[in-house]
Amino acid sequence: MNKIFLAWVIITFALISCHKKKVIKSTTQPEYKVEVKRKIRKLIKAKDSDFSYLNCKSKIEFNDGVENISANATIRVRKDSVIWVSITATLGIEAARCLLTNDSIYFINKLQKEYYCYSYEGLKKRFNLDINYQILQSILYGNVPFQVTETDSSYDCVDTSFTITKQTRGEIMIDNYIKNSTLELHRIELNQKFTNDHLSIFYDNFQRLDSTTYFAFLNKISLSYQNRNGFQNFYIGIEHQKVETGNKELKFPFNVKQKFERKE
To answer: For the chain, which terminus, N or C, has the lower number of CB atoms within 10 Å?
Structure first.
């Protein structure tokens, strides 16, 4: 279960540390932005959901090239406030619990009686990672994670199936692939300019939650990340079995027992 947490943290880190620029031919010049920018604005507006709470029953698969771990998870969200994850191992025993708030990330490993706590500001100082809650929530919802600005270039793919919005944030390059037929965010590629780190997030199996909201029931996350031990490859698959939205209040219980040891 430590590896699941490690992958969770690394993926959070990777949002601000990835590489390998992808070259894609276009049918229009990147300078021609008006129509495609209108598509992006329409997508963002459509994705600005009016529900307050999200509740998912999901299956998680984790593979690091050595181990393949499967687990069940309950994911709850209070919009713009809290993301809560409970991971259940074999025989229905809760193995871990994660809480993401507007200022911090917390993780409890119940099997090994230990916990972790990171502030976003602390992550930025320690790892030079400028991550925040809104970016993580956007990824879970299937939204464009980084705000689209007038300096971002948008253009159609060669087969016109997708509109790509290309963004640069510091040393990070982001490609957002938006399907023209549905205006759904289909894929995100994050790359760092000066390393070989690379993160891909694929969204699939979109299903209607209500009259205005579609949700990707399948997320595939692939990460190639360099650390002190060399390159590591991670895969996390999240398949939502049941997704509910609404304004009925959900609970987010999160208590650390006194005997649990804090880890860095």
So the answer is: C
Angle at which helices 2-14 and 120-127 cross, to 10°: 80
Whole-angstrom CA distances from 57 to 29, 72, 87, 108 are: 43, 8, 10, 19
Amino acid identity, position 45: K
pLDDT tens readout for residues 39-98: 665 555 545 556 789 999 999 888 888 888 888 999 999 999 999 999 998 778 898 899
Strand-strand pairing, 214-227 and 153-156: unpaired
Q: Whole-model pTM?
A: 0.78
Ranges 121-130, 173-182, 228-237, 239-248: which has the least confidence = 121-130
Structure-block tokens of residue 248 = 């009925």
First to last CA, the chain: 16
Give the separation between CA 65 and CA 158, rounded to whole angstroms. Answer: 34
- Tracing tokens 């329409």 back to the chain, one arrives at 42
Q: Top-level CATH class of 2-246?
A: mainly beta
Count Cα neighbours of 86 within 13 Å in the Cβ-side half-sphere. 14
Radius of gyration of the chain (CA): 19
CA 145 remoteness from chain centre: 8
Residue with tokens 């938006």: 178
| Pairing assessment for the beta strands 114-119 and 104-109 based on DSSP bridges | antiparallel
Residue 162 Cα to chain centre, angstroms: 20
If we measure between CA atoms, which residue out of 75, 86, 80 comes closest to residue 52? 80
